[in-house]
Specification:
The chain has 98 residues and is mainly α. The protein is built from 4 helices and 2 strands; from the N terminus they run H-H-E-E-H-H. Helix 1 packs parallel to helix 3. The longest helix has 19 residues.
């Protein structure tokens, strides 16, 4: 499967989870929480106070090779399934087959 197709599937899955669970206000917020939970984050420093804060890191396709994004996708879908109790990709596949 091409990376762009995988990416489209990722965002469709997130949209489904947001719609069904209403635990997140947007797909972007769910995406942010997934990245933070899976460790895709970086430190930023407040130049005035020296305080270090963690923020979500980029998972831009141009920054990752195919295998890296697929690994992220697999981890993200497993995390979602554990958190909300269903696999959104399986649900979307069943919906397409119907």
């Amino acid at each position: 499967m091409r990376l762009t197709e995988i990416c489209i599937g990722y965002w469709k899955a997130l949209g489904l989870v947001v719609k069904v669970t209403q635990k997140w206000s947007s797909t972007e917020n769910l995406h942010r929480d997934i990245k933070m939970t899976l460790g895709y984050r970086e430190q930023v420093v407040n130049m005035r106070t020296g305080e270090i804060t963690l923020v979500p890191d980029s998972i831009a396709l141009e920054k990752m090779v195919h295998a890296e994004f697929c690994e992220f996708m697999n981890q993200a879908m497993a995390l979602i399934a554990d958190t909300v109790g269903f696999d959104p990709l399986s649900f979307l596949a069943e919906e397409r087959a119907a």
